[in-house]
Amino acid sequence: MSHHKLLIIGSGPAGYTAAIYAARAGLQPVLLAGMQPGGQLMLTTDVENYPGYKNGVKGPEMMEDFRLQAERFGTEIRYENAVEVDFSQRPFTIKTDGEATLTADAVIVATGASAKWLGLENETRLYGAGVSACAVCDGFFYKGKDAVVVGGGDTAAEESTYLSKLCRQVYLLVRRGEMRASKIMQERVLKTPNLKVLWHTETVDILGENHVEAVRVRNVQTGEITDLPVQAFFVAIGHQPNTEVFKGQLQTDANGYIVTRPGSTYTSVEGVFAAGDVQDHVYRQAVTAAGTGCMAALDAERWLAAQGLH
Fold it and tell me: Which residues are catalytic?
């Protein structure tokens, strides 16, 4: 068993940024990066909206830059996952899948959220080659082209209306005969000229050799199969916060996101902080995740100082 001032769980933009700030503050943080470090950006090809990369950057390359910067200031990175936590008493106890037991005076949770997918084989194969789960991130690449959005909630309505400002034609596939989105969002969708809603429609397959060339859809009422010639396929059926290991330990909202005190990264447990997409179901951007990672490190440092632990 080893004891640390600060343990960071998660290695996306939030976790690495927290590590950079914490290490520079002399907290000697340990970061549990998991077996596949880097979070959602490891699955992203071109990132063009993160400040400082004037020519854009590949997602994995950007995460490598973050990692090296965190290590430069003394962050210890362990490629293990947290599988059990006990936040009921201090110091906190964390067990990993590497059979290690660690204790910490403070913890930053930055485990992120994962997009929900349809489960199609070509959805995985063509990810980053026309398949995406973030219109704000990737919509620009399909300016003047045609796109499909799947979903019937507010997220799908927002993604499709956003894309309608960039794309020539957007098809919104709704499996039922109605949307779950709020009334105002539905009105925006239906009033957008180049946004067509295909009711009672589900995705059968995504077609294309090296990039998306068409989406095969089926009308669930008639069984009719149609191929839509498009260059982009956006899945907007929601995200799942990676909070399973924290159930019963931290307060979460109805969708499983960790609840933080407004204007801070403080969770329901003193000494435990949350940053990035694990507590943000609104923005879900690398730059906002990094921002809350900075906040969490500053909150943790000040909290530890107030406790006489730093």
Answer: 134, 137-138
